[in-house]
Amino acid sequence: MFSGIVEEMATVVAIVKEQENIHFSLTCSFTDQLKIDQSVSHNGVCLTVVAIDGDVYTVTAMKETLERSNLGKLRVGDHVNVERSMVMNGRLDGHIVQGHVDGTARCTAVEDADGSTYFTFEYPFDATMARRGYFTVDKGSVTVNGVSLTVCEPTENTFKVAIIPYTKEHTNFCDIGIGSIVNIEFDILGKYIARLQSLS
Prior knowledge:
mainly beta, 4 helices, six-stranded antiparallel β-sheet
């Protein structure tokens, strides 16, 4: 489980395809603190550390993960938002993030907001999935590339988020522009509420 508070950007240093899986090797400042079998969020996707070699660690993404996320689009040199799993005796500064990405969204607009930046994202609308809690609500939470954010101006299939300069500089929002594909995870609380309502 994660909080959506990105620790830093890791850099992809190698990509190896093995049958339907892809092994991603990355480097970041806390590689020396990682252990084999540890869970780390990568652009919001929970992946398991399978190897460590000096300042480089490796994780593996399977076909299902690659189809649901933007990880299959990564290239060597790309920046990836990373967060280690949450410590349960600390503050929850973001919101409850499972690292189970629901799908991808496309950036359709980037607007200046007098110092901050508004990003608008569009995702495919599915009425059945919406009834199961896969949607956004005004002032609710959403995870974009692993970043816990507050929703603004949601529609049936779009939402807007405001990014402060610090977040833009310290996450891969610095690389996101119109047309960029991002990972999204809808709020787990909304999914549970929708499920409860469907059973009553």
